[in-house]
Amino acid sequence: MSVPALLRGVRVKQDTVRDMPVLLGPERALMLDPIGAAILDRVDGERDLDGIVVDLAAAYDAPADVIRGDVEAFLSDLADKRLLEMRT
Amino acid sequence: MTAPRPAPPIAMLAELTHRCPLACPYCSNPLKMVAREGEIGTEAWADIFAQAAKLGVLQLHLSGGEPASRRDLTDLVRAARDVDLYVNLITSGIGLTEARLRELDAAGVEHVQLSLQGVNAGIADLIGGYKGGFDRKMQVARMIGEIGMPLTLNAVMHRHNLDDLPQTLDMAVELGARRIEIACVQFQGWALKNRAALQPTREQVAQAKALVDQARRDMRGTLVIDFVPPDYYADYPKACMGGWGSTGLNVTPDGTVLPCHAAETIPGLTFQNATEVPLDQIWYDGAAFNAFRGTDWMPEPCQSCSRREVDFGGCRCQAMAIVGRAEATDPVCKLSPDRPKVDALLTENAESAAGGTTEDFIYRRLEPVRAR
User: Fold this and answer.
1) Which of A49, B5, B204, B348 could, after both became Cys, cross-link B200 (CB 3.0–4.6 A)?
2) Chain A nearest CA to B7, separation (Å)
3) Chain A / chain B CB contacts < 8 angstroms
4) Taking the model in full, what pTM does it have?
5) Of the partner residues A7, A24, A79, the one whose CB lies closest to the CB of residue B86
6) Mean pLDDT score of chain A, rounded to an integer?
7) With pLDDT > 90 as the criterion, what percentage of chain B qualifies?
8) In this predicted model, what pLDDT tens digit does every residue of B228-287 receive, in sequence order?
9) Binary contact (A26, B84; C-beta < 8 A)
10) Are A24 and B58 a contacting pair at CB < 8 A?
11) Which residues of B are annotated as a binding site for [4Fe-4S] cluster?
């Protein structure tokens, strides 16, 4: 079981000037598209990857295996950037 | 043709003070610095932070000089967090005790960027011009780790320490840094005065690039490596500031708002002060910010170049420093008619490297003084 969690110093902020959610971290500001925002909405350091995928599949009425691919790619990119970690 | 309204800035560098215990000969501060008496107060900064947040700034970099030289640093951090800016502290570590770090942490500093002058006291203290600075910095780095604040090392590299790149990367991992910036000296400010003493050799640069490529693969997921290469050796210029007046702004200790660190070296530009003119007006309508915004100002070969929105003509201050005209193509570019000037400087620097030593440094001081 792996639980994704944002690292300390990383947070999502609703940018009221640009009217979009942004992910803020050390020397980074990433504008989030609706998919990224929906994933990070569910990253709370408690829910595991499976739980997040099932929840997204239900919310967007999409096949879980497709969703899983998107979520894994998104989260692993953030892990490479040292913004997020997978806790086991 | 009317230009579209510029996008709001993402980042603001607040140079809270030019005071600093270190005297690094490559400091990006201007040669003419603001004395303590000229610094704006806590309230004025808090007001600028609030205006910045409203304008669309997301990231606030608290820098200097050494920001810890400001006794109101904690209050400034709190003021920035009150308006929900992301607060990054850029420091040499000197002047930060454990108690002060904990206070800053509680006030809401979200990330610390610690400068690194070298991997041992010998080189680091020689560069910083401050005996005992390295040992103190290592203590501060460990305290940052104990408190748990995210850490980036900013290693400024040049001829005298670029060969220590492997040890520099190891040090970042050992100190628990998530990121490291391998920032090769850019020749503006004090660095321009010390160019001959600092310019790395072509061989050093080639080796550093190969090492960084390898380390990025080996350290993926452990350490993020941002590499700023020495641009004199590049074929194309850096996209300075991501394009003039496009993503960021600098505020100096007296409240002057600049499009970049070195913009004051460009004659003819006038800069407004955030204590007198609203920040949004300076950003959108200020003459200095509009001087090189977009692509209309560009000369050839930039104007018809496919890379004009990749590197934005490069660095205006570099064009000023080497060509003598701020609106010239950055002479680093291989397409620039002035590229031979850069090559001549490299040849000259290589010759002086053979005999030159750190004794030639002109240290950063309020009044320039020789090393010995």
Assistant:
1) B204
2) 9
3) 61
4) 0.95
5) A24
6) 95
7) 89
8) 999 999 999 999 889 999 999 999 999 999 999 999 999 999 999 999 999 999 999 999
9) no
10) yes
11) 20, 24, 27
Contacts of A5 in chain B (CB under 8 A): none
Structure tokens at B313: 């003509």
Which pLDDT does position B369 carry in this prediction? 44
Chain A residues with a Cβ under 8 Å from any Cβ in chain B: 7-11, 13, 15, 17-18, 22, 24-27, 29, 79-82
By Cβ distance, the residue of B10, B111, B222 closest to A9 is B111
Cβ-based neighbour number of residue B12 at 10 Å? 27
B149 touches A: beta carbon within 8 Å = yes
CB-based contact A23:A9 (threshold 8 Å): no
- Tens of pLDDT along B304-322? 999 999 999 999 999 999 9
Q: Does B265 touch chain A (CB under 8 A)?
A: no
Banded pLDDT at B56 (limits 50, 70, 90): very high
CA distance, residue A17 to nearest chain B CA (Å): 5
| Spatial contact of B349 and B191, defined as CB atoms under 8 Å apart | no
Measured between beta carbons, the chain A residues lying within 8 angstroms of B54 are: 17
Q: How many residues does chain A have?
A: 88
The 3-state secondary structure of chain B, one letter per residue: CCCCCCCCCCEEEEECCCCCCCCCCCCCCCCCCCCHHHCCCHHHHHHHHHHHHHHCCCEEEEECCCHHHCCCHHHHHHHHHHCCCEEEEEECCCCCCHHHHHHHHHHCCCEEEEEECCCCHHHHHHHHCCCCHHHHHHHHHHHHHHHCCCEEEEEEECCCCHHHHHHHHHHHHHCCCCEEEEEECCCCHHHHHCHHHHCCCHHHHHHHHHHHHHHHHHCCCCCEEEEECCHHHCCCCCCHHHCCCCCEEEECCCCEEECCCCHHHCCCCCCCECCCCCHHHHHHHCHHHHCCCCCCCCCCCCCCCCCCCCCCCCCHHHHHHHHCCCCCCCCCCCCCCCHHHHHHHHHHHHHHHHHCCHHHCEECCCCCEECC
